[in-house]
């Protein structure tokens, strides 16, 4: 019995999430359809993270077991060809791609053997110093609408970093959990690292003095995450950046374990599953 581990990247825009659903296009469902063709028999895969609709991935992991003749190194080539449209579409690209394939021991499970995950959340914050009504929409970019959270109000980056530092550590993160997810035995999780970076550029727009555009990235590494936890942490940090929540209030929000005290849930399109760890994180 062979056990194959995949690394997968995908643009989540047109997927109804990871998990297979009848009559809906999902990442798991599409991969299983393609792999069943490649392997010549039905394939069912186990994914590490059940990403939501419109959430993207750089490094999703999934494994599947079976007896099939195709060599391991040919699985990726054949599957990617079909994912890109077939007909040896070497110059075509679809919205999903397998980036690595390897064989693992039979007992390995991509979900249950995972020790941690890294997520990245992308925010674009563009502010015009002088706006004539009807001429500019504060840097909103139609071509980025599926790939980041675009915010028109200025964000206090330093306040967001101050708040983020209070989230790092082992806590009961019930306040950052949405209802409706899978019931967990415990809501205690460890956030090993939570970093915010900001790249700034100035856009030249006719009839305006200047438009300052800031691309923010929130990178979070943890041993596991509750339902919508990263998006709620992001929304809370955005509310801190807008001045709606004081940075020092984060500690009491966590201690009170009440979802209503935390910030809003950031939209899914800014979220990227970046990496899965199968060895202990220190």
Can you characterise this structure?
The chain has helices spanning 27-39, 72-83, 157-165, 229-241, 249-256; strands at 2-10, 46-47, 56-66, 96-104, 116-128, 149-151, 169-172, 188-203, 211-222, 271-277. It is α+β, with helices and mostly antiparallel strands and 282 residues long. Strands 1, 2, 3, 4, 5, 6, 7, 8, 9 and 10 form a 10-stranded mixed beta sheet that branches. A hairpin with an 8-residue loop joins strand 2 and strand 3. Helix 1 (27-39) packs across helix 2 and helix 3 (157-165) crosses helix 4. The radius of gyration is 21 Å and the shape is globular. The relative contact order is 0.18.
Characteristic terms for this protein:
282 residues, alpha+beta, Alpha-Beta Plaits, 2 domains, 10-stranded mixed sheet, 5 helices, 10 strands, 20% helix, globular
